[in-house]
Please model this.
Amino acid sequence: AALKVLANKKAKLNKSNKDGLTPAMIAAANGHVAALTVLAENGVKLNEVDKLGNNAAMFAARHGRSSVLA
Model:
């Protein structure tokens, strides 16, 4: 719900931190499929990479979050 509020307020949902991590990468690593859906519905590119070349799918796989990859 909070993510939808941020999206409605036009927050920068794809803003990365100093290491290049995006909200999508963090959501994927933690198995938050609903959050990834909201991000994607609001134009967030799920294939962005961090400073080491990792994307959201790689974070999901590394953390055993197969539900994110389905």
Observations:
- The chain has five helices and no strands.
